[in-house]
Amino acid sequence: MNSEKRGPGFYALAAFFALFVLFLYGPLSTIVILSFQGPDGGLTFPMNGASLHWFGNLFEKQAVGDFGGSFTRSFVLGLMVMVTTVVVSLLGGLAFRRRFVGSAALFYLAIASLVVPSILVSLGIGLLFQVTGLRPQWYSSAFGAHLTWTLPFGLLIMFAVFNRFSPAYEEAARDLGASPWQTFVHVVLPMITPPLVGVGLFGFSLSYDEFARTLMTAGSFNTLPLEIYGMTTNVTTPVLYALGTVTTAFSFTVILGALAAIALVNRRRARAAR
């Protein structure tokens, strides 16, 4: 078996990729390492012992910061945004399979928020709630602000999916006597489930760590990104690093769970096709 000769270009690209990975994960690895400081540890190297003290400190009452409450709010808000993004993106993708009057204008209007600065979106929604006499809250105004960020991405993904979706499958189902609802549930939905999982993951992750669009719309209670930002000015212990490590591990867990769900769906589809 002949192996391809690797020239200087290959090693240059490999070195560039290694530097990119180091640049991307170097600061994160520093935070993870410092989160395992001993009880007398500080915010910088060298480490003063090694322990899980600061992770246990996360679950104790803090003088500054509300870890549990802010995490719960971010998690619930992320789930709300995820479900709404999946449903609206799916319905929008189905609607745009056929041209209708005003479809082009509606499409550009739907994705226009991608080019608007996030802080302006947050400020505008916050002012709108105040003018109408409503108090901005993380579950109302922040929810709407996050949707202006996640929905355009979800719609673009579903548009791409349905543009490549062959209507022959639906025609075959109808020829066999399936109703429109049966065709959607048993033919269309199983085939687009992996992209839908991706849309859901995208919506949750974008909402979970969104800062700018939450800044003016969260109201009196912070989400996790706002809480972490506020704590950087008054927390002087590695408990902040421990929080960063836990939230990062949670984010990777969500991603791995989504990938596992996609792999499971693909495996079931492969078995059904045999």
Automatic annotation (TrEMBL):
Keyword rRNA-binding present in the record's keywords: the answer is no
Q: Keywords of this protein's UniProt record, alphabetized? A: Cell membrane, Membrane, Transmembrane, Transmembrane helix, Transport
The family classification in the record reads: Belongs to the binding-protein-dependent transport system permease family. CysTW subfamily.
Q: Which Pfam families does the protein's record reference?
A: BPD_transp_1 (PF00528)
- Looking at the UniProt entry, the stretches that span the membrane are 12-36, 75-94, 106-131, 143-162, 183-206, 239-265
Q: Which SUPFAM superfamilies match?
A: MetI-like
Positions of the ABC transmembrane type-1 domain: 71-258
Q: Where's it found, cell-wise?
A: Cell membrane
Superkingdom per UniProt: Bacteria
Q: Which organism is it from?
A: Oharaeibacter diazotrophicus
Annotated membrane topology is: Multi-pass membrane protein
Query: Could you tell me what this protein is called?
Result: Putative spermidine/putrescine transport system permease protein
**Record-level GO BP terms:** transmembrane transport
What is one cellular component GO term in this UniProt entry?
Answer: plasma membrane
Cite the InterPro entries for this sequence: Bact_Polyamine_Transport (IPR051789), MetI-like (IPR000515), MetI-like_sf (IPR035906)
